[in-house]
Amino acid sequence: MLRVRNLSVGYGAEPVLEGIDLEVKTGEFASLIGPSGSGKTSVLRAVTRLLQPLAGRVDLDLAPNDIGFLFQDDALLPWRTARQNVALGLRIRGNAAKEAEDMADHWLGRLGLEVFGDRYPRQLSGGQRKRVAIAQVLALRPKLLLMDEPFASLDAIVRTRITQELLAWVEQEHMAVLLVTHDLEEAISVSDVVYVLSQGPRAGIRARHEIPIPRPRNLLETRRDPCFAPLLTTLWDDLSAASVTDDSAQ
Amino acid sequence: MKRLLDHTTVRRVVALLLLLAVWETASRLNWLDPFYAPAPSAIGKVLFSLFAEGQIWTHLEATFSAAILGLVAGLALGIVLGFVAALMPLLAQLIEPVMILLNAIPRVILAPLFVIWLGIELASKVALALILVAVLIFFAVYSGIKEVDQRLVERVRTLGGDRRVLIREVYVPSVTAWVMGSLKVAVGFAFTGAIVGEFVASSRGLGYLLQFAQSSYNAALTIALITLIMAFVIVLFAISEWLERRLLRWRYV
User: What is the domain extent for residue A111?
Assistant: First the structure.
């Protein structure tokens, strides 16, 4: 579904990322982890054409409209209500205003926000805004979902609850996902495969690990799976080695 | 009483009434020279007679026409030029230096030129009000677009929005917030343009009346006219605020 080949991305002459190869298959949940500043977000921005690569290619077996992007910030339009925000993408894709708002209400309802449709983003809590952002993306029924540490700003309980809801939805819809995170436990809990980035600049894929925990998954129960602790140790060692190598290089 | 005084508006009104009472008392006790500082009651009488005799209406009409026409035209021109400059970099190279130059000078110095070009009637006053407002609004719109939240732009782009959608959903609402923030200043500028234009050369208008009051050393008429202009501007400020609360409802909920 998504193949990234020899991708180099930078904000100037020097690449932040270099020679990135990764693949996300249909129905596969992939995570990209790495130290801060390794350019994790840049991979997603290159996939969505928000950033022009310096070299390499991004191949997609789907139309641009089949990609959903969940940002780190909820980035809702402050002058639109929750319903209007969710309906926005639907209207852009050709749905009539009334139809789009009905669909928006349906999706807000699915995410437990049925009574908040008329509220503006500033009237919602952080968790509620995040749910609206999720509804906005899921309403478009993407086949590939890109997520950039979408729940980093939430407290642990809300974060776990929303991640679990989203995970259930992704499994049910057989959606492909590429998640950027620096939370190793989260990466193992939700993913089928985890890519580890080295420290930038010129960061590259340092390792790729398959996660053999069966689906459907429960976030809390995955931590009790026998392979969880060894995988966590492996990922931790990978990340530590990347940082040490870079520190010594500097 | 104490609870009533806790209210800001009540406190302001009480302070104003106290000032007027002190002023009136000082005048009646001959502590103030009525030639320079006539009593509030004398100013009130002048104001009353201006309306009772009906001579004020033609002057009000002239000033209001110039200010409102200048305000509307200035808003329209500032918004259009701001959008064009922000979204078309090539045209920005032409428009921005002119606007920076106009912003750097006290624009009222253009009044004599407008009189030479457009005559002493309404057009020269409208032109001055327009140029004062347009430059202010241009920078509000231009900055509004340049400093628009890029996260919102990217969000709409990833939802599939093209340039037209971006303008409608992101740029216009974002710029509206900036323009509404400048609207009160624009109202003040529009009246400044109209009245200064009337000072320079005119046959009617509040600026013309002020000029007459000053040349005849009529302090009561001068203060009465200043009070009148202040009252109208306060009303227009209130209308601007009401408009801002309606258009930017999302900010006040």
Answer: 76-142
Nearest to A120 among B156, B160, B250 (CB): B250
Q: A210 and A154 share a domain?
A: yes
Nearest CA in chain A to B175: A79
Taking one residue from A and the other from B, the number of pairs with CB-CB distance under 8 angstroms is: 53
B177: three-class secondary structure by DSSP: helix
pLDDT of residue A249: 45
CB B132 within 8 A of CB B195: no
B135-144 pLDDT, tens per residue? Answer: 999 999 998 8
Q: What is the mean pLDDT of chain A?
A: 88
In angstroms, the first-to-last Cα distance of chain A is 38
Query: Helix, strand or coil for residue A50?
Result: coil
Q: What is the mean pLDDT of residues B45-52?
A: 92
Task: Judge: B160–A65 Cβ closer than 8 Å, yes or no.
Answer: yes
- Domain ends where: A142, A176, A192? A142
The answer on A162 and A92 residing in a single domain is no
Q: Has residue A71 been placed in a domain?
A: no
Model pLDDT, residue A204: 84
How far are the Cα atoms of B5, B7, B10, B16, B19 from residue B2, in angstroms, in the given order? Answer: 5, 9, 11, 18, 20
